[in-house]
Amino acid sequence: QVQLVESGGGLVQAGGSLRLSCAASGRTFSSYTMGWFRQAPGKEREFVAVSIWSGGEYYADSVKGRFTISRDNVKKTVYLQMNSLKPEDTAVYYCAANPYYSGSYYLSSVYPYWGQGTQVTVSS
User: Fold this and answer.
1) DSSP assignment, residue 111?
2) Is 58 helix (H, G, I), strand (E, B) or coil?
3) How far, rounded to the nearest angstrom, does the alpha carbon of residue 98 sit from its chain's CA centroid?
4) Bridge-partner residues for 10, per DSSP?
5) What average pLDDT is seen over the chain?
6) Are the CB atoms for 87 and 57 separated by under 8 Å?
7) pLDDT, tens only, 59-74
8) Helix (H) or strand (E) holding 96
9) Which spans in the chain are helix H?
10) What pLDDT shows up at residue 106?
11) pLDDT exceeds cutoff 90 at 100
12) N or C: more exposed end of the chain, with fewer CB within 10 A?
């Protein structure tokens, strides 16, 4: 079983930055593909970014060039650095994990483990 705990959300003005963290339990964090998703009110949960366990980072077009995903396998933590935030980035952000996975990483249904979410609100 993998437990995920997000932190770092908050209220920020448009153009500002936030860094989200997701701490994971388990002994084999380096083998987890770690994804970030978000869900705005009344909308479907959508893919934001992923760090593939075997290497590679991928982003949704809407955040490419503004967000950066990174991971620290010693600290068992994945980060999402969010710059140039826009009001449309407002959502609950979730991290998700799937051990040894490198397939359709943009689909929320492939992730068996999820955090509780952290709210990000960007004011205009």
Assistant:
1) -
2) strand
3) 13
4) 120
5) 96
6) no
7) 999 999 999 999 999 9
8) strand 91-99
9) none
10) 95
11) no
12) N
Angle subtended at Cα 45 by Cα 7 and Cα 66, rounded to the nearest 5 degrees: 60
Hey, what are 34's tokens? 């770690």
Tens-digit pLDDT profile for residues 72-92: 999 999 999 999 999 999 999
Q: How far apart are CA 115 and CA 2, in angstroms?
A: 10
Q: Are 122 and 85 in contact (CB under 8 A)?
A: yes
Q: Are 99 and 62 in contact (CB under 8 A)?
A: no
Query: Hey, what amino acid is at 6?
Result: E
Question: 24-39 burial string, b = 16+ CB within 10 Å, else e?
Answer: beeeebeebbbbbbbe
Residue 104, SS3 per DSSP = coil
Three-state secondary structure call for residue 103? coil
Q: Are 77 and 70 in contact (CB under 8 A)?
A: no
